[in-house]
Amino acid sequence: xxxxxxxxxxxxxxxxxxxxxxxxxxxxxSLELAQLAEGLGFQRFWVAEHHNMDGIAxxxxxxxxxYLAAGTHSIRLGSGGVMLPNHAPLVIxxxxxxxxxxxxxxxxxxxxxxxxxxxxxARALRRDRLGSAHEFPADIEELEVLLGPRRKGQGVVATPxxxxxVPIWLLGSSxxxxxxxxxxxxxxxxxxxxxPRFMHxxxxxxxxxxxxxxxxxxxxxxxxxxxxxxxxxEEAEFLATTVYQRVLALLRGESLVLRPPVRDMEALWRAPExxxxxxxxxxxxxxxxxxxxxxxxxxxxNTQADELIFTCDLYEQAHRLRAFEILAxxxxx
Length: 333
Known about the structure:
There is one protein chain. The protein is of the alpha/beta class. It is built from twelve helices and nine strands. The protein has helices spanning 23-40, 61-70, 89-102, 119-125, 136-147, 175-184, 199-209, 233-239, 241-252, 271-280, 289-303, 317-332, and strands spanning 9-13, 44-47, 76-83, 107-112, 168-172, 188-190, 221-229, 285-287, 307-311. Strand 6 (188-190), helix 7 (199-209) and strand 7 (221-229) form a beta-alpha-beta unit. The mean pLDDT is 94.
């Protein structure tokens, strides 16, 4: 059975924007968190592509990865993920080929098939290819060719990109992504940090249907986990209200900027909304060190996950940094 000590920990950051801040502050905070993660020995640091969301500053994912890479030395950096239907595979191959050429051995490419935006924004992103999520498997194959060794007679070559063999991960919250990752023999990251409903079924399908590939000999599962850690359970529950408000705003279609924690959520949500937020955050680890330890040990026992990747959208940057220090401390104790 996997243990906390032996399980790699990673971070997924959305460069959250605070109600009193802006994108510049959010991006600087993302770098500060990446630097801390590197010092604490985290496995990788990923950023996610989202669009038309005022509380998320990681929309230009490849650009942000370049900024993070320039400010760190060794931690693996990647996308969690790039929403491939929004882009031509050649553009992604060139972007990540450039990153891999500048920072060899450190760049990874996590791919998702959702647009990471509403319908109107998706239209603005890819006016010429509406509905291209259906072409996701073909786009992945094209991208693999563009990042692989140049072939004789190959008409379109990514420069930079060709021969970089940037590691590809498949991301998803559905059974489709699990089946595709298994068929292609790629590592699989399940979005249980916001969509835990199909987690167990997706993991089972991926492992049962996995076909070894040149990239991966056996299945490798990484699970997303929301983290709200503090020195005590009481403080963690208080700080978690920032995340509750953010998810509530998402459900209502309101601004996603981070808001300060509140003493009582009952005045802010209705009973069905409370239930929906709690369902969204079903896998959230909220509490002091021992509560977090118990929750993570239970999660590993129930899923046999190979790696955990954590999100943390606490309001104060100091509290975000402290949460990951607490998490890292669980490995040493």
